[in-house]
């Protein structure tokens, strides 16, 4: 096995340059003779680190001044509960757009705290696609409208921002955060678990507009209260310092290679190469409509579960790891987040060609 390429859906691969930088500093961070994991989170050096991390993220993502950046814990699932506790107000309910497993899971959790309406916006089948994104006629009935722009399990991505009029739009961007430039001002809240494009598992990014902070219901736990976390620099308790540090290195790396325009170009090139091969193949197929195919998670099957299992086993032996699809759908899934190089996708395509030639009936 000459080189391993990790196609895990999350925790996913991190830029090698970031890992090498962390490795070099592991026992002697900033010449202090200790690891970043061993210093006080309220000490001078770590406070400087988090200030610079936010500055770099704001620059890379073009975050407007009237938005706060929070680095929290609990993953996206924690935010499934935090959102209704903080955002449900006078209207008393929220609208959830169901495009797959994770948007449905978010709605299920939110129902523990508020009245939730849910609309399915995906039509599944041999041409799985998003049906509608215009909710301007009903959105003003709700305190917020929630959606998941990229469903990792099915490989469905929503590239167009839903039309919700003047309503508050909330997006779970755990699997496509920082994959391309977006207009942050179109959203009230963006949140994302770190373990796909930001860094390691254990820290969660929340980007929230100022006017949405400070309205949490009285019984909201302080760790989920956006105002409390804002006022405490996201540190009402000891944060996951190493994860925060690694995220800071990722932001710097993205800046160094040319920002999100470069990242987006790479992501499109990788995804297009893989989809083009699948479309021309006699063995593999992808059932997502071209306009909704994810650039982050490419799903495919052979149509034969036993052959799928053989593919996964042989791919793993060839150094192409974590290609097994989610248990909900089966088949294969190649997660090609920001850190996956084009060489990894090319290696996968070459293996797929070889496997097809050897197994096509």
From TrEMBL:
EC class name: transferase
PTM-bearing positions, type N6-(pyridoxal phosphate)lysine: 196
Cited function: Catalyzes the reversible conversion of 3-phosphohydroxypyruvate to phosphoserine and of 3-hydroxy-2-oxo-4-phosphonooxybutanoate to phosphohydroxythreonine.
Subcellular compartments: Cytoplasm
Protein family according to the UniProt entry: Belongs to the class-V pyridoxal-phosphate-dependent aminotransferase family. SerC subfamily.
Chain positions recorded as L-glutamate binding sites: 42
UniProt-listed PROSITE patterns: AA_TRANSFER_CLASS_5
Assembly: Homodimer.
NCBIfam families: PRK05355.1, serC_1
GO molecular function annotation: O-phospho-L-serine:2-oxoglutarate aminotransferase activity; pyridoxal phosphate binding
GO biological process: L-serine biosynthetic process; pyridoxine biosynthetic process
Every Aminotransferase class V domain range: 4-348
Binding site for pyridoxal 5'-phosphate: 76-77, 102, 152, 172, 195, 237-238
InterPro entries recorded: Aminotrans_V_dom, Aminotrans_V_PyrdxlP_BS, Pser_aminoTfrase, PyrdxlP-dep_Trfase, PyrdxlP-dep_Trfase_major, PyrdxlP-dep_Trfase_small
Name of the protein described by the UniProt record: Phosphoserine aminotransferase
Name of the encoding gene: serC
Cofactor-binding details, from the entry: Binds 1 pyridoxal phosphate per subunit.
Pathway recorded for this protein: Amino-acid biosynthesis; L-serine biosynthesis; L-serine from 3-phospho-D-glycerate: step 2/3; Cofactor biosynthesis; pyridoxine 5'-phosphate biosynthesis; pyridoxine 5'-phosphate from D-erythrose 4-phosphate: step 3/5
Reported cofactor(s): pyridoxal 5'-phosphate
Organism whose genome encodes this protein: Rodentibacter rarus
């Amino acid at each position: 096995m000459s080189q391993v390429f990790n196609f895990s859906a999350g925790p996913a691969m991190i830029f090698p340059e970031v890992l090498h930088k962390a490795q070099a500093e592991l026992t002697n961070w900033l010449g202090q003779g200790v690891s970043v994991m061993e210093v006080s989170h309220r000490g001078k050096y770590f406070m400087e680190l988090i200030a610079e991390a936010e500055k770099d993220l704001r620059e890379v993502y073009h975050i407007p001044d009237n938005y706060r950046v929070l680095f929290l814990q609990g993953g996206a699932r924690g935010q499934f509960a935090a959102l209704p506790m903080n955002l449900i107000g006078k209207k008393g309910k929220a609208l959830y757009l169901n495009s797959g497993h994770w948007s449905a899971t978010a709605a299920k959790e939110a129902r523990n705290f508020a009245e939730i309406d849910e609309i399915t916006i995906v039509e599944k089948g041999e041409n799985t696609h998003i049906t509608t994104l215009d909710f301007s006629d009903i959105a003003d009935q709700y305190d917020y409208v929630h959606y998941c722009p990229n469903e990792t399990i099915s490989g469905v991505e929503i590239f167009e921002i839903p039309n919700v009029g003047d309503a508050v739009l909330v997006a779970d961007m755990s699997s496509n955060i920082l994959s391309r430039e977006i207009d942050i001002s179109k959203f009230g809240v963006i949140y994302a678990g770190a373990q796909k494009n930001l860094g390691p598992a254990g820290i969660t990014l929340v980007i929230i507009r100022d006017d949405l902070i400070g309205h949490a219901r009285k019984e909201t736990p302080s760790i989920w209260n956006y105002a409390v976390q804002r006022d405490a620099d996201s540190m009402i308790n000891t944060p996951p310092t190493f994860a925060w540090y690694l995220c800071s290195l990722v932001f710097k790396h993205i800046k160094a290679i040319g920002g999100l325009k470069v990242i987006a170009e790479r992501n499109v090139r990788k995804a297009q190469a893989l989809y083009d091969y699948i479309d021309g193949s006699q063995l593999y197929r992808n059932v997502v409509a071209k306009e909704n195919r994810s650039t982050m998670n490419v799903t495919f099957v052979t149509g034969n579960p036993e052959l799928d299992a053989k593919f996964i086993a042989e791919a793993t032996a060839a150094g192409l790891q974590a290609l097994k699809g989610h248990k909900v759908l089966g088949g294969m899934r190649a997660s090609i987040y920001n850190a996956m190089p084009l060489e990894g996708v090319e290696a996968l395509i070459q293996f797929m060609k070889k496997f097809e030639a050897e197994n096509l009936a």
